Automatic annotation (TrEMBL):
This is Proteinase inhibitor. PROSITE patterns: POTATO_INHIBITOR. One of its GO terms (biological process) is response to wounding. GO terms for molecular function: serine-type endopeptidase inhibitor activity. SUPFAM superfamilies: CI-2 family of serine protease inhibitors. It comes from the Eukaryota. InterPro entries: Prot_inh_pot1, Prot_inh_pot1_sf.
Length: 85
């Protein structure tokens, strides 16, 4: 997403950090829950085999989904526990 920047590289993260209850749910549903619970984060949906940076940001959550999400969570199934980072 354009305009997004890591505001906490290497910092201490606070608040809810993981959403194991969203595993297996639809990506859009998971994104909505996370955005409601952590309005200070930006949520990205990425396909299972996406290549992503390994930096850790307290204001980012990646939702890994099956299929080719292309940034859109839609009805894709969440395949890994979403977590801050």
């Amino acid at each position: 997403m354009s305009g997004w920047a890591c505001n906490s590289l290497g910092g201490q993260c606070y608040g809810k950090l993981m959403w194991p209850e969203l595993l297996g749910r639809k990506g859009k549903e998971a994104k909505d829950v996370i955005e409601k619970e952590r309005a200070d984060t930006t949520v990205f949906c990425v396909p299972r085999d996406a290549i992503v940076t390994d930096d850790y940001c307290c204001n980012r959550v990646r939702i890994y989904v099956d299929g080719n999400a292309n940034g859109d969570c839609g009805n894709a199934k969440v395949i890994a526990v979403p977590k801050v980072g």
